[in-house]
Amino acid sequence: MDTTIHITPNKDLKAHIESVDCPCHPKVEMVYNAVIEEWSSVVIHNSYDGREVIEKLQVLSVEQLS
Ligand SMILES: [Zn+2]
Predict the structure, then answer these.
(1) If pLDDT is split at 50, 70 and 90, which confidence band does 27 have?
(2) What pTM was estimated for this model as a whole?
């Protein structure tokens, strides 16, 4: 059984392929799924619009304020 979970950004600039070969170079992590008592691979896709960079910049600006 294929229990791979894909996490893709919503409303991204380009469509993602639900595969580790997706052009966004997704990151693959293993997580234990207690419901089915099996390890599943989670494919975390990168957004094409660079929103991760924006999120990191927001975190940095919050830290500088405190
Ligand atoms: Zn992707």
Answers:
(1) very high
(2) 0.65
